[in-house]
Design brief:
It comes from Vicugna pacos (Alpaca). Helices cover about 50% and strands about 10% of the residues. With about 725 residues, it is of the alpha+beta class.
Length: about 725
């Protein structure tokens, strides 16, 4: 007879004792269960003990999380969290250095547990740790352990970062600014200051004033990947917290100190692989730097500005006036104005007064900046562009100014200029760090590409929008390849000719579209069930392989990873925390299990509880698109297992696989694409023998029956 559903068979172990195999009744109070376990080992005062999970982070079992205990779980009997907290905090006062170190090691191990953390915090544990940090008597392992324990306790959000005192923050800043410091201390100190900067504007200003940018540059130049990552994290946090004017000043200074060159040579092209966290911070740095262009992009040209009028004249003169030959020497003022207006039209402005073209925002003054940069840094290419098109027929000339304005808008869209930074994105471009003035240099390459494409298409003024669509596709496809330098980008984008774009479009269309003849549609419908079964099998195999998921708090990115996979018999989801840098663990070593039979539903996007807690800001769009949760029976209540997929593809694979386990249809975009690809391939294989044979829209008519059936053979007549 099967045991009741609320009874689980578990093992309880204790040091120097024979383990107990018991049946745990989840309906029984936890205190009563502890009493029975202690009685079996003849232990008095059961209130002094607590149960912990033996695997993973050895979390304490409470009434809130006891339903996570499953059949076969291994628990251990340990000191109650309040007594353990009291003991370890007492150990911090030990006169023995080894005693203090041992207490801190245990504190670091138990600090991730919320139950234990609350007990430590309620006993002024943070203040005691803060005192050790402020005193700074030991700058080695003791200080590193203290900082790590402090960070772990603060991560629970029980105490606000804004409550930290100014002397404490200054002391941590002192550790960052010291030259001779233990290598394990400074990454932790930098991480603590990053949290302070992101969480408290007032303390963030203190950190900004106390930590020189030169000091962060020194840390970035140390060949220690962890130290580099934390230094870059604090740098991007300081930049995000600065005002636009301060941010521009800071970035100008960093660029003058050759930060860009160092990042390109020693971080992007380092022998060690680039970590996810560093990739995110490089993305943020790129976005903030491109964000400096936003004010120019949002500002229209002022027709009354003398400086801007002079810039427009300089643009015209660079194209049409040789050096030392002023416009219309000896001509009247009216004649000079008429000649000037005609040349502005040749330059590609829609109006004789170019200020009217540049009143549009975006791109505003950024388009003028790009045109001036091109005329000054590539004067021969600029003159060739303008004069070549001036000599064409009016309907075939490529308007330089109009093209530049539209191309600037296009580049701002492709590079997300002015958009808020995503909290999870890692989509930075190595090319951005290979070149000074990367946006303007990219424009110079793109405007010459546009002229080349215009000639390949033999375009007229009516084809302007079509040309811009092709150029958008050329730029987007090349940027997606993430070329490592501007020269490589130039080479790749110039090989992507108009003919090549048409070929790629045709290939994609053939992949996406099949013939619409009814017989083919009928064949596809008959193939669908078999192919959907193949996709379902692939999704379940992917779940069995497992995936590393990243834990992301509502405040900032986290370093912590956890692994989840499906058991080979498709009965249980196995999961647990793993260390950063380690490979996928063996499924049998994972401490947590969730029976598939207990799963109620699959939730995605805004329906997930961890998305609702995070809020609905613009920066959470990427987070929302990658979030999904499993709701499952947790005793009498409903509980959730929350996921943040590492990529959109992993999101589709996992939601499809979980839907297949629950017997629900797999409705992701990836399933649609995979099914379409398989259907196209299978249909083509089936139709190989009918190549070049036209398939009729309607089946051929059935001929009428014959007038007689005398041709039938009568089998009953015996042969002679």
């Amino acid at each position: 007879m099967a045991p009741p559903r609320n009874v689980v068979k578990i093992a309880v172990q204790m040091r120097d004792a024979i383990p107990q195999l018991i049946q745990l009744d989840q309906a029984k109070p936890l205190a009563a269960v502890l009493k029975e376990v202690c009685d079996a080992w003849s232990l008095l005062h059961s209130e002094r003990y607590a149960l912990q999970f033996a695997d993973g982070h050895r979390r304490y079992i409470t009434e809130n999380n006891r339903m996570e205990i499953k059949n076969g779980s291994i628990l251990c009997l340990s000191t109650a969290p309040d007594l353990e907290a009291e003991r370890l905090l007492g150990g911090l006062q030990s006169e023995s250095r080894e005693g203090r170190r041992e207490a801190l090691r245990h504190l670091v191990l138990l600090a991730p547990d919320m139950t234990f953390a609350r007990e430590v915090i309620s006993r002024d544990g943070l203040q005691r740790l803060g005192t050790i940090i402020e005193d700074g008597d030991d700058l080695g392992e003791v200080l590193a352990l203290t900082l790590r324990a402090f960070l772990e306790l603060m991560e629970h959000g029980v105490v606000s970062w804004e409550t930290l005192s100014i002397p404490f923050v200054r002391k941590v800043v002192c550790y960052v600014n010291m030259n001779l410091m233990d290598a394990s201390v400074q990454p932790l100190a930098l991480g603590l200051l990053e949290s302070v900067t992101l969480s408290s504007p007032a303390l963030g200003q203190l950190v900004k004033s106390e930590v020189p940018l030169d000091r962060l540059l020194v840390h970035l130049q140390v060949m220690n990947q962890q130290l580099q990552t934390k230094a870059m994290a604090l740098l991007t946090a300081l930049l995000q917290g600065a005002s636009p004017a301060e941010r521009k000043h800071m970035l100008d200074y960093l660029w003058q100190r050759n930060l860009r060159q160092f990042i390109y040579k020693n971080i992007i092209h380092s022998a060690a692989p680039l970590g996810d966290e560093m990739a995110h911070h490089l993305y943020v740095l790129q976005a903030l730097t491109l964000g400096l262009l936003e004010p120019r992009m949002r500002t229209p040209l002022d027709p009354y500005s003398q400086e801007q009028r002079e810039q427009l004249q300089a643009l015209r003169q660079a194209a049409f006036e040789p050096e030392g030959e002023p416009l219309g020497a000896g001509l009247s003022a009216d004649r000079r104005r008429s000649l000037c207006a005609r040349e502005f039209r040749k330059l590609g402005f829609s109006n004789s007064n170019p200020a009217q073209d540049l009143e549009r925002v975006p791109p505003g003054l950024l388009a003028l900046d790009n045109m001036l940069y091109f005329s000054r840094h590539a004067p021969s290419a600029y003159s060739r562009f303008v004069l070549e098109n001036s000599s064409r027929e009016d309907k075939h000339e490529c308007p330089f100014a109009r093209s530049s304005i539209q191309l600037t808008v296009l580049l701002c869209e492709l590079l997300h200029v002015g958009e808020p930074c995503s909290e999870t994105a890692q989509d930075f471009s190595p090319m951005f760090f290979s070149q000074d003035q990367s946006f303007h240099e990219l424009f110079c390459v793109s405007i010459q590409l546009l002229n080349k494409t215009w000639k390949e298409m033999r375009a007229t003024q009516e084809d302007f929008d079509k040309v811009m669509q092709v150029v958008r596709e050329q730029l987007a496809r090349t940027l997606a390849l993430k070329p490592s330098s501007l020269e490589l980008f130039r080479t790749k984008v110039n090989t992507l000719t108009y003919g090549e774009v048409l070929r790629l479009r045709q290939t994609e269309r053939l992949h996406q579209e099949g013939t619409l003849a009814p017989p083919i549609l009928e064949l596809r419908e008959k193939l669908k069930p078999e192919l959907m079964g193949l996709i379902r099998q692939q999704r379940l195999l992917r779940l069995c392989e497992g995936t590393l998921f990243r834990k992301i708090s509502s405040r900032r990115r986290q370093d912590k990873l956890w692994f989840c996979c499906l058991s080979p018999n498709h009965k249980v989801l196995q999961y647990g925390d793993v260390e950063e840098g380690s490979g996928p663990p063996v499924p049998e070593s994972l401490p947590e299990q969730l029976p598939v039979a207990d799963i109620r539903a699959l939730l995605t996007g805004k329906d997930c509880p961890h998305v609702r807690e995070k809020g609905s800001g613009k920066q959470n769009k990427d987070f929302c698109e990658l979030a999904f949760s499993i709701s499952y029976d947790h005793g009498e209540e409903e509980a959730y297992l929350n996921f943040i997929a590492p990529s959109k593809r992993e999101f589709h694979l996992w939601t499809d696989g979980l839907s297949a386990l629950l017997g629900s249809p797999m409705g992701s975009e990836q399933t649609r694409l995979d099914l379409e690809q398989l259907l196209t391939m299978e249909t083509k294989l089936r139709l190989l023998e009918l190549e070049n044979v036209p398939i009729p829209e309607q089946p051929p008519p059935i001929p009428p029956p014959p007038t007689n059936f005398n041709f039938c053979y009568d089998c009953s007549i015996a042969e002679p």
